[in-house]
Amino acid sequence: MNHVIKKYGDVQVIHGIDLQIEDCEFCVFVGPSGCGKSTLLRMVAGLEETTGGTMTIGARHVTTMDPSDRGVSMVFQTYALYPHMTVKETMGFGLRMNGYAKPEIEKKAAEASLS
């Protein structure tokens, strides 16, 4: 992320975030309710448009890329789509829809400590 900004009208809610996360690194956003954690993640996933700045995933510029082309998934805190599935099953569903085989899904779930 390079100087990522989000405004709703005149109210700026994300103030120029600069962040680089390397491959295989984990990053956690922590803060009180309403501080912008979910908004930032929704912008990364493409579910929310940025007001300014740029985002790249790997070598791909994704700031204006369609969400379905980004290769990013989100699991929401409350049931968003699949209340009958576990977190692992929800993650696996997204991976299956993107052509991953069961052994690769199991490997990715284990990497995320969901096995």
Automatic annotation (TrEMBL):
InterPro entries: ABC_transporter-like_ATP-bd, ABC_transpr_MalK/UgpC-like, P-loop_NTPase. GO terms for cellular component: ATP-binding cassette (ABC) transporter complex, substrate-binding subunit-containing. Residues 15-107 form the ABC transporter domain. GO terms for molecular function: ATP binding; ATP hydrolysis activity. Coiled coil: none annotated. This is ABC transporter. It comes from Antarctobacter heliothermus.
